[in-house]
């Protein structure tokens, strides 16, 4: 049996499909499983033990996309897939599912595209207090697969031993040895609705560095936010005074390197973005800064025994939102999160005290 799984993007959403990948493998242990994904999120699937093949689909435009997708469709059709599951539901992914010629094609019943699937699953457009893993898992119900369980089917991303060794050497060169307690602060996000203020990150970094001389605060960001990370480091070092040297500016991590560093950390702090969900594939405690999103929808999907703290601003009538326009105009769901709350939650996780599911 040949099965095609499709989720082209985004990083966090691809991470959220990994429990379903494991469940499909469990349901069809002898099947050949292929996953179709765009380059930015492909690293999440590299080395996944449940997949036989990952096909990386280039991001192109115009006539290049048309010709490329036609060639890919021919390649897929030659595989004679028995089953295709489109976790994405976008125009490109639904067309690729249809063009694959798979005898059974499962996807969301989306207006204008539902006809491309042989089995259509309802998808609500409202922002429900339901986890994204569960929303995508709905597509497995027609296969007789039981509901998801966090402990049995956590999100996953395979560790790369070579990357881990390289990052360990890099951390040692920066003064973070085995005795150091690493705190990773990821200070960027893909859109302003998930980006906590730089000044707030700096205050947290300075306070955590000053509280314990064994700590090393690692400031990370995405490639497009390198300047923001540098500003956070500069501000934090001024606030930290004599502890300034404990704040490390190592912003140019790719996702595999970030995962390796988080695996070595005592705690991860960051907004609801792809890197946080990559961090969730480790057993490291997480402090999640949730702006417009709900903890029920976006908190780490893994064993409840692994501690995490959700920091958000409850009671806002505009929350959750679709993240296209801030109705109040001041991003209060983020600016209302104080550094003091983040520091307190982080210290509790560092002390390994029992963590509440929500702060």
Compact description:
The chain has helices spanning 11-27, 39-45, 62-79, 91-99, 132-137, 161-173, 198-211, 226-240, 255-263, 274-279, 295-298, 332-335, 339-350, and strands at residues 2-6, 32-37, 53-56, 83-86, 104-108, 119-121, 181-186, 215-220, 247-249, 267-271, 286-289, 308-311. It is an alpha/beta fold and 359 residues long. The protein has 2 domains: 2-142, Rossmann fold (3-Layer(aba) Sandwich); 161-350, Rossmann fold.
Number of strands: 12
State the distance separating the first and last CA atoms.
47 Å
Overall CATH architecture of the largest domain: 3-Layer(aba) Sandwich
Number of helices: 13
Number of domains in the coordinates? 2
Query: If strands are numbered along the chain, what order do they take across the biggest sheet?
Result: 3-2-1-4-5-6
Q: What's the alpha carbon Rg, rounded to whole Å? A: 21 Å
Output the CATH topology of the largest domain.
Rossmann fold
Model regions low in confidence, pLDDT < 50 over at least 5 residues: 353-358
The residue fraction in helices comes out at 25-40%
* Percent of sequence in beta strands: 15-25%
Report the CATH superfamily of the largest domain. Glycogen Phosphorylase B
Multimeric state: single chain
Helix/strand class: alpha/beta
Element string (H = helix, E = strand): EHEHEHEHEEHHEHEHEHEHEHEHH
């Amino acid at each position: 049996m040949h099965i095609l799984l499709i989720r082209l993007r985004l990083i966090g959403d691809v991470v959220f499909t990994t429990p379903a990948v494991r469940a499909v493998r469990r349901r069809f242990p002898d099947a050949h499983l292929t996953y179709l994904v765009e380059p930015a999120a492909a690293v999440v699937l590299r080395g996944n033990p449940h997949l036989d093949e990952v096909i990386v689909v280039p991001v192109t435009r115009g006539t290049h996309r048309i010709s490329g997708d036609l060639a890919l469709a021919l390649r897929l059709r030659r595989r004679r897939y028995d089953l295709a599951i489109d976790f994405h539901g976008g125009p490109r992914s639904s067309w690729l599912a249809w063009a694959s010629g798979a005898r059974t094609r499962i996807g969301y019943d989306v207006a204008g595209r539902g006809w491309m699937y042989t089995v259509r699953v309802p998808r609500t457009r409202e922002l429900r207090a339901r986890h994204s893993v569960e929303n995508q898992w709905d597509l497995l119900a027609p296969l007789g697969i039981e509901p998801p369980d966090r402990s049995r089917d956590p999100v996953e991303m395979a560790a790369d031993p070579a990357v881990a060794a390289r990052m360990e050497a890099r951390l040692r060169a920066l003064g973070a040895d085995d005795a150091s307690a690493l705190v990773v602060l990821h200070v960027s996000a893909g859109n302003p609705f998930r980006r906590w203020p730089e000044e707030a990150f700096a205050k947290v970094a300075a306070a955590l560095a000053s509280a314990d001389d064994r700590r090393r605060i690692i400031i990370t960001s995405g490639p497009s936010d390198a300047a923001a990370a540098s500003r956070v480091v500069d501000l934090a070092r001024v606030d930290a005074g004599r502890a300034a040297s404990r704040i490390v500016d190592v912003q140019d991590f790719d996702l595999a390197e970030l995962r390796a560093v988080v695996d070595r950390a005592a705690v991860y702090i960051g907004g609801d973005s792809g890197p946080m969900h990559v961090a969730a594939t480790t057993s490291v405690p997480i402090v999640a800064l949730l702006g417009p999103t709900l903890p029920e929808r976006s908190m780490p999907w893994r064993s409840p025994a692994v501690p995490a703290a959700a920091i958000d601003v409850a009671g806002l009538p505009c929350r959750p939102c679709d993240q296209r326009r801030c109705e109040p105009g001041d991003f209060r769901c983020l600016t209302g999160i104080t550094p003091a709350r983040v520091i307190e939650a982080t210290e509790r996780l560092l002390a390994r005290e029992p963590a509440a599911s929500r702060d």
